[in-house]
Every structure is written in C-alpha cells, then in structure tokens.
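Ticket #4471: structure export looks truncated?
Reporter: QA, pipeline team
Priority: medium

Steps to reproduce: submit the single chain below to the structure queue and open the exported record.
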Amino acid sequence: MDDRFDRRELLLHLGDMLEVLSCLARTGRPEALVVQLAKEQNLSQDFRFLQALGPKMTVAEFSAGVASAFFLWPKELLDTELNRKALASTVQHELFDGNPDGWNSYVGHLRKKVKWFGDGLPGMRKEAGAEPLHDAVEEVNRVGVASSPERDVPGERKGWPWPEPKPTT
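Actual output as written to the record:
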C-alpha cells in the first residue's frame, strides 16, 4: 500500500502538536487550562484540534499526554508496515480518555487529511469521519510543491517523501 502522503500528514500533525506544546510551555503556567491558554495565545485558529480537548485539561496534563501519545510516532511512521491502530490508540488513550465527544471531533479533524485515522477503535461514531475528505494533491500544492500533469491525476501519489514503490513479483 502506498501511504506516503498519509505518513507525511501525520508527521506534519506531530509537528503541530510539538509546536502547540512549545507555545503552551513558554507561558510558564502548567496549571492553566489548555483551552483558556489556547484562546489567549490565539492558538485555536491555527490548531483547531485543540477545541476537541477536555475543557478541564491543564497544560501539565496536556504535556504529559502529548509526550506519551506521540513519542512512538516517528519510529512507527518510518516502519515499513504502518501500524494504523497503534498510532491512533495511543492518542485516544493519552489525550481523550473519558472524552469520547472530543475524540470523535479530533478524529473528524484528522480524517480530513488521513481518511483511515481512528478506524477500528472503540468509541468511534460513524459520523466522526463524515466530513469531506482531504484532497492530497491540493494540500501538496498549498505547501509549495509545483503541480505537474502526472500529479494532477486524482488518487495518484507520486514523489516526496518516499521514492516510488518497487513492484513486487
């Protein structure tokens, strides 16, 4: 399966999580509520997934949750076989335990870019992924990669970040 663009989107999301973590840590207010600080720091505009977090989650809890939820992502995303369930289940357990509505909202947000994210996990509502799916070609063009005729073929995934898949015989 050619999942290079899904891996790329998940790496970008990991970067977003680390950026948010850094911004919140710089405030020096570990006991402050994440949703409150995100609003004060205008983080909710750029990082809409923050709206899915529990309203009583503190910066300290969020920091610990992000560290536990995402520490394996770089290794997992570089493995030959992508363990989709493990990627999502750690996030669900560490950041959304006891917050099924938030989890479903978060999954809906990520499924705009990675349509399979959260599949097969308990607590998922079917409508969590009912939002329109992400167009990978549009996203690649948005971040500055020039369009080419072969890239404009819907469903085709070619080029960076990994080389073309080798045919198996």
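Status: closed, not a bug. The export was complete when the record was re-opened. Leaving a note from the reviewer for reference: The mean pLDDT is 80.
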